[in-house]
Design goal:
It comes from Dyadobacter linearis. It holds the Pfam family adh_short. InterPro entries: NAD(P)-bd_dom_sf, Sc_DH/Rdtase_CS, SDR, SDR_fam. It is a single chain. The chain is α/β, with parallel strands linked by helices. The protein has one domain: 3-Layer(aba) Sandwich (Rossmann fold). It is built from 6 helices and 7 strands. It has a 7-stranded parallel beta sheet with strand order 3-2-1-4-5-6-7, with helices on both faces. Helix 6 links the parallel strand 6 and strand 7. The protein is globular. 41% of the residues are buried.
Length: 237
């Protein structure tokens, strides 16, 4: 089956890493659905992506904190294109503060989106990916193995995500599904309300993560890089 008949679903795909991944995959001839909690943002991003290849992108309003919402997102892809080959669990949030200042609401949102949201994504997509012998890719972080000050919530969510994804890999490979965890360091994206600029040229670019995913899905199915750490080649001066 050619890549032009393959489809991908990317959570949090309206900007940042998710949008960069979508750009690369569409250029590879893969149809892409991107999700956002904002229908307007999802539709606007899909319109930009369709400038690369008309009709290759759709936007879906979806919230990873809701299992039902993830089920609907997967069904939308199936209704649109008849199959799901690649699921990229990218949606994430970061709240950074010492324990005495971190609120229960910030803690809960971080865990709900970064960890539980990936579980919901996996559960919702499992049947479709089994059908296509597909690929599930979670976007974690180097914060999933390296703890740091003011990172209690984020570290907990990403440590948990790495553990979940690697255990899932062992569970579902019997069904022919591959699972990879990608753990980026500093990325030039809008994460945590950052506005990328020329000063971010030293960082990993969102499309670089897209290139890694493009390379992964081209590997023979017998081979699985199950966990990939990604760093800028040179740190900021």
């Amino acid at each position: 089956m050619s890549e032009s008949s393959k489809t991908a679903l990317i959570t949090g795909g309206s900007k940042g890493i998710g949008f960069g991944i979508a750009q690369v995959l569409i250029k590879e001839g893969i149809r892409v659905a991107i999700t956002s909690r904002s229908k307007e943002n999802a539709d606007q991003a899909a319109a930009e992506l369709n400038k690369i290849s008309e009709g290759f992108a759709i936007g879906i309003e979806s919230d990873v904190r809701s299992y039902e919402s993830q089920q609907k997102a997967v069904q939308t892809v199936l209704d649109q294109w008849g199959q799901l080959d690649y699921f990229i669990a990218n949606a994430g949030v970061g709240h950074f503060a010492p324990i005495e200042e971190l609120t229960p609401e910030q803690w809960q949102e971080t865990i709900d989106i970064n960890l539980t949201g990936v579980f919901f994504s996996a559960k919702a997509s499992l049947a479709a990916l089994t059908s296509t012998k597909g690929y599930f890719i979670s976007i974690a972080s180097l914060a999933g193995t390296n703890f740091f000050e003011n990172g209690a919530a984020y570290n907990a969510s990403k440590f948990g995500l790495v553990g979940f994804s690697q255990a899932m890999m062992l569970d579902v490979r019997k069904a022919g599904i591959r699972v990879t965890t990608i753990m980026p360091g500093s990325v030039a994206s809008e994460f945590n309300n950052h506005q990328p600029s020329e000063k971010d040229a030293w960082k990993i670019q969102p499309e670089d993560i897209g290139q890694i995913i493009s390379d992964l899905i081209k590997l023979p199915a017998r081979t699985l890089p199950s966990k990939i750490e990604v760093r800028p080649s040179m740190p900021s001066k």
